[in-house]
Amino acid sequence: MSPSCILSNEPLDPAKALADFTNMSEGQGAIASFTGIARQTSRSGHAVSGLFLDHHSQLTQESMQHIAETARQRFSVGPVLIIHRCGAVQPGDPIVLVAAASVHRRAALDAVDFMMDHLKAEALFWKREETETGQVWIEPTEDDYAALARWQ
Amino acid sequence: MMLELVFYGPLADLFGREKNYEVPDSAATIADLVAALTRQFPDAAGALGSERMSFAVDDQIVQASHGLNGLKRIEFFPPVSGG
What we know:
The complex is a heterodimer. Chain A is an alpha+beta fold. Helix content of chain A is 34%, strand content 34%. In chain A, strand 7 (125-131) and strand 8 (134-138) form a beta hairpin. Chain A starts with a strand and ends with a helix. Chain B has one domain (2-77): Roll (Ubiquitin-like (UB roll)), CATH 3.10.20. Chain B has helices at residues 10-15, 30-40, 45-48; strands spanning 2-7, 18-22, 54-57, 60-62, 73-77. In chain B, strands 2-1-5-3-4 form a five-stranded mixed β-sheet. Classes of the chains: A alpha+beta, B alpha+beta.
């Protein structure tokens, strides 16, 4: 089954998306998921008033698809799901949902971990935080790049 | 040679999404183009200078060593940040 990847500029409902994913994962023994929430405080400690996610009209979707398909094959999992927000996102709102289903738990957990590390530092998104001191484009931290390097 | 440049993320804040740019005759590769832009727009030097910059031509990722000959449009991808 090819992975399901959705790029959405509408609010994301992780509970509903996960319920739908569970329904389509019949016969699997494990479902792992991760939900990322837009931060309410910037790295510099200021309150975030808004977030904007820039993306490419075609290649962003392809980058998500590539990450999901690589995870599915590498960990031999069943259905895989990525939903990622784009455009304007409010602090506290879900920004990404990743899920994987498999016969046993380890493969599903690893696939989710792998997909998140790659979404953070390889998928074609550009994230800008707005705070009272201005707008700041966010780049992955050294920890994020180190997390990505674990899989190489 | 006039090229259409397309920018994302912090570069779009600096240049706008699209910019028509007259490329100096001496520029043969995307790396040369980046060097010319950096000289002309010092404010963009930080973003353009990242070793994690990537580029796309016809919706395919290409390296900075890619030649400019025959190109009409180049997309500039600064370091990405999803999740």
